[in-house]
Amino acid sequence: MFNASLKQLSIQLADKKVSSVELTKEYLQRIKTLNAEYNAFITVNEELSLAQAQLADQMIASGQAGTLTGIPIAQKDIFCAKDWLTTCGSKMLSNFVSPYDAGVIERFNQAGAVNIGKTNMDEFAMGSSNETSFYGPVRNPWDVAAVPGGSSGGSASAVAARLAPAATGTDTGGSIRQPAALCGISGIKPTYGLVSRYGMIAFASSLDQGGPMAKSAEDLALMLNVMTGFDARDSTSLQRDEEDYARDLEKPLLGLRIGLPKEYFAKGMSPDVERAVEQALNEYRQLGAETVEVSLPNSSLSIPVYYVLAPAEASSNLSRFDGVRYGYRAKSYGDLNDMYRKSRTQGFGAEVKRRILIGTYVLSHGYYDAYYIKAQKVRRLIAQDFADAFKQCDIMMGPTSPTVAFDIGEKSSDPIQMYLSDIYTSAASLAGLPGMSIPVGFGDKNRPVGLHIIGNYFTEAKMLNAAHQYQQATDWHQQAPGNIGI
Amino acid sequence: MQWEIVIGIETHAQLSTQSKIFSGSSTAYGAQPNTQANAVDLALPGVLPVLNKGAVERAIKLGLSVGAKINSPSIFARKNYFYPDLPKGYQISQFELPVVEGGHITIQVNDTEKSVRLTRAHLEEDAGKSLHEDFHGMSGIDLNRAGTPLLEIVTEPDMRSSAEAVAYAKKLHSLVRWIGICDGNMQEGSFRCDANVSVRAKGSDILGTRCEIKNLNSFRFLEKAIDFEARRQIEILEDGGTIRQETRLYDANKDETRTMRSKEDANDYRYFPDPDLLPLEISDNWINQLKDTLPELPEARRSRYISDFGLSDYDAAVLTGSREIADFFEETSAQLPNQAKLCANWVMGEISGRLNKEAIEITACPINPVHLAALLTRINDGTVSGKAAKTVFECMWNGELEQNVDAIIDAKGLKQISDDGAIEKLVDEVLAANAQQVEDYRNGKQKAFNSLVGQVMKATKGKANPAQVNTMLKNKLDS
Amino acid sequence: MTLSANDVKAIADLAYIEVNEGEVQATLSQLTDIFDLIETMQAVDTSSVEPMSHAQDVAQRLREDEVTESDQRESNQSVAPQVEAGLYLVPKVIE
Asked: Looking at CA atoms only, how far is residue A11 from chain C in angstroms?
């Protein structure tokens, strides 16, 4: 049951082979047993989950069920969910029970899905290893010495350890794709504007985008069908016709032109990752696709640009955490300014404070043009590179992460090394393009390798098709870590 | 040395929308604390702003009314600073590309006309309020006002006296109400002015160091604060000192300005385009639609009153001081062709005086233009004297006899005696009874004539037509 | 450019983050490394490039001017550190 796809679970629920309450209880039990090992969840709330499961069973009984009705879904703790503790991985929000639902949460609720718990994450989504969480590091189910990646590390770990059939994540510079790669699961960051950001605690507004994490491309498609859609409360939400992201899954790949950005295959990628990626590309060629070399000449600048723009937006977005209306307030303080300073200094962790300082600096008087405006200009060049390259190909592929999962503690004292984990993913974020990662084998220490697929705007169905066809021909996505007790 | 005062004004006009600029909360004044502050206004984690169309429309209307350029795209920016009444830790405002750029407002001071150039007008959100009553040594924060739409209207440093500054502020105040974008309620803070004041040697074309005086919420305070501040700066300069650029507060009780914060303390606001809001595009089509909804503007009406009605500059300016007064005047005069001056006198005299005295707006005036026109018609046709008309006015104001002019005249016996025979009889009686005064008059004492007129009037209880009495007396005495 | 210890203190002040004397040097050296990485973007010629603020080239959508919210004070203030008489309490605000 824990390896079942969403479609299979949906059929079992519809056929009354299992009820949502039973399924929910099974997963809650599994989380109870294994969460101590992986630390994938920050909050589990049996009462709230089971109440939703009961509602789902009623929906099923009355014939109103949709594909995800009754299925437990883990929610990244960045999404505000009414009556749920919503911490964003921070001490700052360690007492914040959200009074409202995020747009994404509303959509899952309407679909009758069951919120099975809130997953651990890097504090305010700032990190690539899930080590910055106030709630402690998450462990990679393939090897508990390894990080799961971040910032959606809890969601990735939960899906890989089969603590949830699927989960939500958010991606600002790679936070869905990199942990999906490191945990051997599938994850997609859709085109910016497709998933509502309302109620998704902001890190960098112009880059943040929610998306699903699951065991397969098919599951991702079903999740996207629920998650995406216009939300009037988010000014950057796009008004588009509804689409079925599963519609093209079965299309053959004959003639698909896969662009291989030469910059992504140059130095930097470790040999074990390269081996797995090349093998996957061969598989694609056998499936009838052709590969063409393309170039993204400014891609090496995506990390510098990202580390100007994301911290700049974050420094402003996180100003609301001042200990006045909600969240952490220091226990003792002098005057008002002291209250602000102490609450923020004690409430935020080291990485968050570091990024607030970077962001404050690049926006400050005299530096704005040299950093912020400059970075926005290079951002346009990076986006233009993609536009040019997509004239020669339908989708692009490369490694998701330069290495397999590193050990917990290995990079935590070296911010630069940590930042470079997103070297292949941040460019697509800057351009607002959809990107996904699927498992394509194993590298050193038998840790998973992810293939990065970048699509043009609004071509999620095509990307999912490419991923699904690969997953029909291979079984990497079906492999589960050996020690998770199934 | 001769000094010249240089003044620029920044006005925050609260836009008269139903809901806030970035949320669906009500902007109604006076609600219980924090009952009109929703998740967005409180900046709960994850919330996002969505721009209110009504606020943009009002900004465009102002731009159209002052001959400004409407920018498209127009961009919203974050102004970052920490303050407990600012929930997000930044204010959404505009920096580059405000909705309104340029334009001008014409003012009249001492019969001279002057054009004050506007730099820009931009949309922004208001902050909440800190209440300083003592809560165990703490302050209380009410965020009902947070997110209320404001239009900040900024002038060039074009004014040269407090009188010009006040004339500008009054003109702008009248304009925003005229075009219906702001209720102009200064007590409730819907229209607040900051004045940038500097002084320089007369004839110099270099601007002196300026001080900004914040939150002047009446025209009188604006005037007094500028006068005080200019004197203060001149005294410092005459003593050989220099002016420190700073923000100052006007203390109305002491009639002085004092330092609020110096330039050195000024925040680095780290303006940058708000990534949660997209470029605002304003199509020509939209602008034209709004143009069609604008009423005839005060300047246009003023010229029309002078050219079509033959009113004086002064009368035309006073009548166009507010749209409601101008409408009242026009509705009255529409019923009394060619009597614009009479109508103007009554609207500016009796009506305005009485409204002022009772501190009510013309929209709440108990006498409407139809009633007033009926009364003026009776003055015009000689039915009542001007004096009696004031009594009728009083009765109408109090709602007597359903405000029927003729019924009031009858009931109060105010009808003017215009019958020659009746007046002649009374004149003869008065002449017969006052032989001494007749004698005096004939000996050249003009005073005696006035006394005789007075006695005739008294005998008619004031109802005779004074002009008629005059003529008749004169004829009889001089014959 | 070179970041100084004073810059670190100044931005920490602006951001209301305490960086105590003992942490200034360590913070400075981390930020300096990060800015060395960031500086690499200065090499690109962007003289004819427009800044890109948003991922999508879309205009701002507008909301009709309608009141859609009702009073949620009780629920919103249930997460507040300190409230009284419907007000959020903070250390005395001095103007």
From this structure: 38
